[in-house]
Amino acid sequence: MSLSLESLRAALDSPNVAAMLRVIREHESGQGADAYTIINGGSHFSDFSRHPFDNIPTTKGGKASGAYQFLGTTWARLCELYGFADFAPATQDLGAVALLAGRGALQDVVDGRFEEACIKLRPEWTSLPGAAEASAAWTMDKARACYINYGGQIHNDELIERPEPAPVPVEIQPEKSMPIFAALLPSILGFIPELIKIFGSDAKSEVAKRNVAAAGVVTDAIVKATGSVNLQAAVEAMTADPAVAKAARAAVVEEPTISVLLEISGAGIDKARAANTAFVAGAQHWWQLVLNPVLLVTVLTLPLIYIIVWYLVQYMSKVSSDVIAQTIGTIVGLVLGGIMGFWTGQTYTQSNKRTTDNQGVQA
User: Fold this and answer.
1) What is the pTM of this model?
2) Are residues 30 and 142 in the same domain?
């Protein structure tokens, strides 16, 4: 939901809202004054006139910044909605409240339903307890204690003793999770070597950077298979127990999206090329070449790209443009990459065969 700028300012007067913002800062940036100047990675900016990566997606070098680690594209969207004129600390606070409202959690925060609010906010701030990148040590109880320490009041319904809720699957933001995935990729490849076909052996390679969506799928599969709260904890569990590592490997390789990518990258395409070469060699008439199954599949697949892109564009008002762009880029890259990979390999295979045959004749 979108509020007026006046409503955002009024919400900031609530002690519960102010305390919740402190909880978010605890593992996003810190509690010091310099939290408002931090850039993801540890450096700082000094110009509050605008977001240091205003409207720049992470795919083009943008980085999350400020006390609440706003992405440049997210901040640009908030500026458009609320007319924010700078990136000053007070404005960052208003932007954070806007995100609370956008996730439908603002009223829960105001009413003191802390745990319910945290669950709703996990997709926005993945460092919150139980979220995709949360530290295992950052439990709901510790977050609640932080909230109370900064003046937050708990609703009566949450004062009843209850067991710590198990982590639930949440939306993973590829832009924020990719740096962590890249850092852990060498260890992951040690347990799941098949992924080299998708990401290569170097986490900094262009191949790895292009497969942001695949990294999110792999992360989610590993975390679920190991029963961990985040990828770091999952890798530690795999290191400690070979059985856990085996289960994680099976979960990733059998995950539908990854299995398709492995087929595109591995032996599956070689088999398809071989079958197509045999078909072409056995054709007796020109019209049999036109009915080549691979050619027909290629022609029929291309319109799907336009359909998918058109469908995704309908969500521009609900999802940030850079996420849409990344998703479209991944889908188009996979489809066109598979097609071009097949035909390029096919051409090379046939050319190489002709060269070998000629050499045999000359010999």
Assistant:
1) 0.47
2) yes
